[in-house]
Amino acid sequence: MSTDSTRTARDDRAVRRGHPTATPSAAVEVLGLCKAYALHGTLLPVLQDISFQASPGAFVSVVGPSGSGKSTLLGIIAGLEEPDEGTVTVGGGVRRLGTVAYMPQADTLLPWRSALDNAILGMEVRGTPRHEARTRARELFAVAGLSGFEGAYPSTLCGGMRQRVAFLRTVLTGGSVMLLDEPFGALDALTRSAMHEWLLGLWERLSATVVLVTHDIEEALLLSDQVLVLSPRPGRVVLSHEVPLPRPRHRAMTVSEAFVGDKALLLEAIHGGVA
Ligand SMILES: Nc1ncnc2c1ncn2[C@@H]1O[C@H](COP(=O)(O)OP(=O)(O)OP(=O)(O)O)[C@@H](O)[C@H]1O
Ligand SMILES: [Mg+2]
Q1: pTM of the full predicted structure?
Q2: Confidence tier at 135 by pLDDT (50, 70, 90)
Q3: Positive or negative, the Cα torsion across 264, 269, 273, 275?
């Protein structure tokens, strides 16, 4: 879904404030971000002093326990919410139409639109003629194992199918930065593995910058250049890990010594081994 207008307003403010440490070359930069929600008259801190940077074309994953603020963080980067403190810049703060494509964690398919017409929503919003948008979407339905379901309504699809339609919509929306909140959480292992390969191929072709939220450490390691581990709420970055595995990556790597070692490191960080 496009969030251009919010993004642009935020970028304007960031530029006006002239944040001294913003890095123009970063595709996504988060600096000193804090966020709290009001709950029963008190403030519930959710994110605390989060900083990280994704250079153009980088694949960054965010893992952490449930409630650590991963979705909140992604929503703030997407421009849906404001941070209480800190700054977020996308594309170095440069105003540009169509920078961000965001896939929220919750299923946001429109029940009155067919799967195909849900998938083209972002393209339509950005002005692509419907016929052209449908043609492009149809090609991807086959890749995502959704052939034959183009005309189906969301209520008749299983959770994994709905998730793939939402994922296609994000991919088709385009944009140099993709923000994906647990895009494969509802998929079985085989479909998930196929989607991983497809996403990696796409990522390389499009040179897009990806920020992916996931519960799945193996998924994070297989896909990413960098993995951020958040602490339990309030989420802080307890580990920022550069993944040393060579590319292209494939499923068989998950049994390699390097992979197993990295996985142990991330698990230790998630369970509080790294302060
Ligand atoms: N709009 C809101 N108002 C009040 N509290 C909120 C709001 N959004 C999130 N929270 C709270 O903030 C905390 C972090 O939520 P968030 O959804 O970001 O976590 P998460 O890491 O994505 O969790 P999960 O892994 O279960 O998806 C939770 O305690 C949640 O209840
Ligand atoms: Mg979440």
Answers
A1: 0.89
A2: very high
A3: positive
